[in-house]
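A reminder before we start the practical. When you read a complex entry, don't treat the lines as separate problems. The point of joint prediction is that each chain is placed relative to the others, so the output describes one connected object in space. Small molecules and nucleic acid strands, if listed, are placed in the same frame. In the example below there are two entries. Take a minute to note the order of the lines before looking further.
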Amino acid sequence: AQSVTQLDSHVSVSEGTPVLLRCNYSSSYSPSLFWYVQHPNKGLQLLLKYTSAATLVKGINGFEAEFKKSETSFHLTKPSAHMSDAAEYFCVVTPEYNQGGKLIFGQGTELSVKP
Amino acid sequence: DTEVTQTPKHLVMGMTNKKSLKCEQHMGHRAMYWYKQKAKKPPELMFVYSYEKLSINESVPSRFSPECPNSSLLNLHLHALQPEDSALYLCASSADTRLAAYEQYFGPGTRLTVT
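Here is the predicted structure of the whole assembly.
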């Protein structure tokens, strides 16, 4: 069964330092992949999306992610964390065969940013 | 404009009440979704509407009744809920369900508390 694993349930960084949130997916195909961010008591906001074009994807708010097929990874990075980046982040993949728009969500990574 | 709106933001209801959640989008999307999200968990898909027809029901109890009056509106009617139904209810939309690669845009959610 297809799955997506976010390797850290919680990541803590200091303001101004780099952010790395790790995501691996299990599949024998090339899915579309997304990163969403959810601030407390808010909905999910799309950060970026990969759909088989450039492997390095730039998103909003300075985030980017690199698709590495050989490693089945899609890690999210940001060069310098800001306090406003503190939130829950979800890595999301499409299933191998379209199931009417269904998506596969990772369990989420909570990012804390210390001043 | 990539906005999905939801009303109300908060809802407290007793187990014998009937209430409705509303969702609206004006992006011309033909797919709309209801998700349920518990604290510190990813969203769980409940229903999918494609071209105003119910296409997916993830075995949701009948006390939840979805409705899609037109292509811009989505309702979720609630009746005789249980305390374990307390959660954040998220609405989302995407261009279509024929490609899972179409990104989903989420609303801010309705925080539901069942007493």
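Discuss with your neighbour: The mean pLDDT of chain B is 94. What might explain this?
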